[in-house]
Amino acid sequence: MRKKIIAGNWKMNKNHTESGTLAQSIVEKVSGIRGVDVVLCPPFTSLSPVGEAIKGSTVALGAQNMHWEKEGAYTGEISANMLLTLGCQFVILGHSERRAYFHESDEIVAKKVNAAIQAGLTPIVCVGETREEREKEITKEVVKRQVTGAFRELTADEFEGTVIAYEPVWAIGTGLTATSEQAQEVHEFIRRHIAGMFGSDLAESTRIQYGGSMKPGNARELLAQADIDGGLIGGAALDAGSFEGIIRAAL
Ligand code: 13P
Ligand 1 center to residue 213 CA distance, Å? Predict the structure, then answer.
C-alpha cells in the first residue's frame, strides 16, 4: 500500500516572514495526522524559516528547483548540497513552468534528477501535456517521452523512492481539473511505463501525484483513484485551511 504524499508548491509566493507564519499554521493544523506524508516547497529564500517552523513535526521540507552541478561559477543557482544542509528531503524537478519559461529540456531534467539522487534528495519529477498536445491526442506519447527522458540513466536502485507528479499543463492555475477518469488513465499509463523501465515491483511502490487545480472540493475523488497517490498543490497550498482540507481528503 502506497502512503499518500501531499506537497505544497508555493511557487514564487510568500516572503521569508510570511512563509514562516504559513508553515507554522499548517503544522498546527496537521500535527495529529500520521497517515499522509506532507511536504512544503517554499521559495529558496524561505527554506530556512519554513525549516524552523516545521522542526519537530512530521512535515517535510522540499525545494522547487536546483542546479545539477555540485558547486562553481553558476551565478544565481543553488546546489543539491545547499538544499540538504537546509534540511530539504525533496526537490521538485522539471515543473512545466520551468520547462516553459526557463527552457528546461528532458536532458536538463535528467541531469538534475541524477544529481539530486546522488546527493540523497528525493526528486518529485513533473510531467504533463499541454492543451494542444491533449487536443492532438498525443498525451501518452508526451508523458512517455518525459518519463523516459528523466529516468533513462538511472538504475532501478537509484530510481527507488522517486516521486512522479502528473500535472496536465492546461489544468495548472486555470481552475480546470482533469476529471478523475482522465487523470487515472494517465497515472496508470505512467505506472505501466515505469514497470517497463524498472520492473513491476518498483512500479507498484512508486508514488504518482496529481497536480493541477487540486482543491479540497475535488481532492477526495481524485485521490480515490487506484493510481493517484497524492497531490502537488499550487494555489490551494497557500492557504493553510485549504491545504489541510486536501491533506484530510487523502486520509
Ligand atoms: P495549481 O494547484 O495552482 O493549479 O498548481 C499546480 C502546480 O503547478 C503544482 O506544482
Answer: 6
